[in-house]
Specification:
Blueprint: E1 32-37, H1 41-45, E2 49-54
Antiparallel strand pairs: 1-2
InterPro entries: Cu-oxidase_C, Cupredoxin
GO molecular function: copper ion binding; oxidoreductase activity
Family: Belongs to the multicopper oxidase family.
């Protein structure tokens, strides 16, 4: 399968049919925590969202807050150690 990574169409929404998938290319322009989610409230409420953290060379709460103590993890990060806290 070949993806168009050079001149892809810029879109704000995509349609994904039932039992199918879509590949997306996202340009994130600054450090910090980004949330990719469904705009359908039922799915958003049930957790169909993804958080992406872009780390800055200087770890500061200006870009990203510390993880809450009660945050739930899953998948490959389930047993991994927590990142060190950010300094203010």
């Amino acid at each position: 399968m070949n993806y168009n990574l050079l001149d892809a169409v810029s879109r704000h929404t995509i349609q994904v049919f039932p039992h199918s998938w879509a590949a997306i290319l996202i340009s994130l322009d600054n450090c910090g925590m980004w949330n990719i989610r469904s705009e359908i409230w039922d799915r958003h409420y049930l957790g169909q969202q993804l958080y992406i953290s872009l780390l800055s060379p200087n770890r500061s709460v200006r870009d990203e807050y510390n993880l809450p103590e009660d945050v739930m993890t899953c998948g490959v990060v389930e047993g991994m150690p927590r990142p060190p806290p950010f300094s203010s």
